[in-house]
Specification:
Elements lengths: L2 H18 L24 E2 L35 E2 L6 H8 L5 H10 L8 E3 L15 E8 L3 E9 L14 E14 L8 H11 L14 E7 L6 E8 L2 E11 L2 E8 L1 H17 L6 E10 L7 E10 L2 E11 L2 H10 L1 E3 L1
Parallel strand pairs: 10-11
Antiparallel strand pairs: 1-2, 3-14, 4-5, 5-6, 6-13, 7-8, 8-9, 9-10, 11-12, 12-13
């Protein structure tokens, strides 16, 4: 074989082998992306400044009179911390549970404490409808009275923010200052103890109950329904002097008697409707009690406006609440004070 041909074939073969063989290198996997750092979630708590504390006051230590109605401290809203998270904030819990009472009630009971051996209690809520029925711009304050067998907190509406028992209260009274009162009186043992005695005593101490409108003096009666369908109750309207123009509407809620006077059954039924609806979801103290409502201006001349006095007996103690600024919301406001009654 021709030596030149062999050399040529050998060279071609080498080229073919080199061209068909690639160089193989290890392929490194693409390195993973670093994990994103955890997102930090900050909890934001916005703290509302606490209401200014009221200066200490001296408790008036004098007998209670029917005409002396103490002034009422302005209501300063209780501040709460606002927490923008689902986790409860200790700060907000402390603010919310510091006292169960309206600030004015809290201060008034604190002023009485140490000046009486009687139990201390009061409404946790004083509805604004009780002292500012129209504009809602008054201030609530109070004056306390302590006697040997009783104590009373007289609520007042003022044009300036005054602490409980402030001597300046009489100088800043609003146009409707006599808001109402609440308190406790110790009774003698011979006027309580049985249902009949308790009911007689409740009527005796309730200034809105009128003996001339006792059932025994009624000259006519009719039955009607009070309250919405889901809470309806049967009530009896009694007429006097052969007319129903100034009737009395009576019904019962458990051990409690409720009476509305001062108008015809039609207008008394309007007030009763709201009371029954409210008391269907809120419970009165579990004792024998009396709610008296007096219509001051029955409709249609004016919107139904009323005042309310509530009392009940626990053992030898008579608890009492009244709301004196006439309004349509007055009876439910008084009932709210009774249903939120709480020991101090």
């Amino acid at each position: 074989m021709n030596r030149r041909f062999v050399l040529w074939a050998s060279s071609v073969l080498s080229v073919l082998l080199l061209g068909g063989c690639g160089q193989f290198s290890a392929v490194s996997p693409t390195p993973p992306k670093p994990a994103s750092p955890p997102v930090s979630r900050s909890v934001h708590v916005s703290q509302v400044s606490a209401a200014p504390s009221l200066d200490p006051v001296q408790t008036t230590n004098q007998p209670e009179t029917a005409t002396a109605l103490p002034a009422q401290p302005t209501v300063t809203p209780i501040s709460h911390a606002t927490v923008t998270t689902t986790v409860p904030s200790p700060t907000s819990l402390d603010a919310a549970t510091a006292s169960p009472f309206n600030p004015v009630v809290q201060q008034a009971l604190g002023a009485i404490q140490g000046h009486t051996v009687l139990p201390l209690a009061g409404p946790r809520i004083i509805p604004t409808a009780a002292y500012a029925p129209i504009m809602g711009m008054g201030f609530l304050t109070a004056q306390t009275v302590v006697g040997r067998n009783h104590w009373t907190v007289h609520l007042r509406d003022t044009t300036e923010n005054e602490p409980v028992n402030s001597p300046e209260i009489s100088q800043v009274l609003s146009r409707t200052p006599f808001v109402g009162s609440f308190g406790i009186r110790e009774l003698s043992s011979n006027v309580v103890g049985t249902n009949a005695l308790d009911e007689t005593t409740l009527r005796q101490f309730n200034p809105l109950w009128n003996a001339r409108q006792g059932i025994i003096n009624a000259t006519g009666k009719e039955t009607l329904v009070v309250g919405p369908p889901h809470a309806a109750l049967m009530a009896t309207a009694y007429g006097f002097g052969h007319t129903f123009n100034n009737a009395k509407l009576i019904w019962n809620e458990g051990d409690w008697t409720l009476e509305i006077t001062g108008g015809s059954p039609r207008y008394e039924q309007n007030i009763a409707y709201d009371l029954v609806r409210y008391l269907h979801a809120h419970y009165l103290p579990p004792y024998t009690g009396l709610i008296m409502v007096d219509l001051i201006h029955p409709a249609p001349l004016l919107a139904d406006t009323a005042v309310t006095h509530i009392d009940w007996i626990d053992g030898r103690y008579l608890m009492h609440i009244d709301t004196r600024i006439p309004s349509y919301a007055n009876p439910v406001a008084a009932a709210t004070m009774a249903t939120t009654w709480y020991p101090y």
